[in-house]
Each structure stands twice: as C-alpha cells, then as structure tokens.
Design brief:
The chain is an alpha/beta fold. 44% of the residues lie in helices and 14% in strands. The protein has a single domain, classed as Rossmann fold. Strands 3-2-1-4-5-6-7 form a seven-stranded parallel β-sheet, with helices on both faces.
Length: 257
C-alpha cells in the first residue's frame, strides 16, 4: 500500500493533501504540532482518512526537531512502511520586519530568523535526506514542498518567511539534482493566495486575499483542495521526468498579479 508522509497534516494544504491522498489509496503518516485547543483538527483528518479505508498514523511533534524526526522515522520503520510521497507543508515562522518601522514596533531578532529558516526551509533537507539514508524512500519517490509568491515578491511583515520560501525553492533544486540518480523527484509547489489559518496570521491578509481575487484570471481564489488534487496527479508514475521545478498551482494568479 503506498504511503504519504505529510509534514503539517492538521490544517491548510497538509490537511487537504492528507484527505486527497487517502481517497487515492495512500496510507497517511501525519506529522503535526497541535496543543489541546487545536488537536481536534488532526483527529478530524485521521477520521476522514480512516473513513476512506486507509490507515493514518499521527505524530504530534515538532517537525524541525532532530530527535522528533528520528522518532517518527523509527516508528515508520518499525511499522514496516516505506514512503512514496513526502509533502513539506510547515507554516511556522516570525512575522516581523527586518527593520523596525519609523512609527514604532519590533524588528525580528537573529534567533527568530534562524528559526523561521530552519522550520520552513532547512527541515525539508533533513527529512528528505533521512528518508533516503534509512532506505524508507526509494526509486519512484516524490518530494513536494509548499512555497509561495513571497519567495520573489514582497509583502509587509513577510520578510523572514519570504527568505525561507526562497531558500526552500533552492533546496528543492539541489535535492532534485542529488536525488535524480536514485529516481526520486523533488519539486516546489507555489500555490495561489489561499484562505488558510496560516495566511490569516499575516498582517494585511485581507488585502492579500482581495488583491489575489481581483487579479486571478480564473475568477476565484485558490483552495487547499485545488492544490491537493494536483499533488495526487503529480505523484503518478508518469511524472518521473518532472523534477527541480517550482510548479504554480494558482489558476494563473502569479503571472497576472
């Protein structure tokens, strides 16, 4: 039975992808970080995956922690499972400017920038590398990482996250080069502006949503389900020669705004 390892499985793109891959016949290995107040989101995903007839193993840990990653991979190996698809959909970082505004306020500190880069970019390298080293992902494997237009355009308070997204895209290119001899593809996925809990945390998110809606030639915003459906199709065997790209799944938004 194929399996998808979803980093950030309890909301947004990760939750939609978990449900879509389960509907396509994949077992789900879901990593999330939820306190009691939001834990039900992960349990809802698990229930939906099981209702689709697939297994769903949840790991409520910090995906950017080395020990937690080792524990999850130990558990996967103990189950006798292998990973066909890895989706990196972690959305946790600081939303402060590099320089404090003249009107007053805080600027980000070095540790906050380092943390944002580690969670939203570097952790992809460690997960992908460990999966390969442990022989938990082999030929035909697919690696996807969620990026955003903030990698190449500017939004207020998005400086650290934008830097992380740019680094994430670069990591995908180099991983694609290094893993190509093993028959594993790696692509970044640039979704359109999507109304998710992570987006709502960005100052000025309403303006982002309004501008995207006005500029999208398809006449509506991207949804998590749009992205999840594309990811399932991209994971099929016929995409074995598609690697090292940043793939837009946005209805044409990024080319028009």
């Amino acid at each position: 039975m194929p399996a998808a390892l979803i980093l950030g499985c309890s909301s947004g793109f990760g939750a939609a992808a978990s449900r879509a891959f389960a509907a396509a016949g994949y077992d789900i290995l879901g990593v999330h970080l939820d306190r009691r107040s939001t834990l039900q989101q992960a349990l809802d995903v698990q229930a939906d995956v099981q209702a689709a007839g697939q297994t769903c193993s949840l790991f409520n840990v910090n995906a950017a922690d080395d020990g937690a990653r080792a524990g999850v991979l130990d558990a996967i190996a103990a189950q006798g499972a292998t990973v066909d698809v890895l989706l990196h959909s972690l959305a946790f970082g600081t939303l402060l400017p590099f320089v404090a505004p003249e009107s007053g306020g805080k600027a980000l500190r070095g540790k906050q920038l380092t943390m944002t880069l580690e969670v939203m970019a570097n952790s992809l390298v460690w997960w992908a590398g460990d999966l390969v080293r442990r022989e938990l992902m082999g030929r035909g494997g697919r690696v996807y990482a969620m990026t955003s237009s903030g990698s190449h355009t500017c939004f207020p308070s998005y400086s650290a996250v934008g830097a992380a997204k740019a680094a994430l895209e670069c990591h995908c290119r180099y991983l694609a080069m290094e893993l190509a001899p093993r028959g594993i593809t790696v692509n970044a996925v640039l979704a359109g502006v999507t109304d998710t809990p992570a987006l709502r945390k960005i100052p000025g998110s309403e303006d982002l949503l309004d501008n995207a809606l006005r500029g999208n030639p398809s006449g509506r915003l991207t949804t998590p389900d749009d992205v999840a459906a594309a990811l399932v199709d991209l994971a099929r065997p016929g995409t074995y020669w598609l690697t090292g790209n940043t793939l837009r799944i946005d209805g044409g938004e990024d080319i028009c705004t």
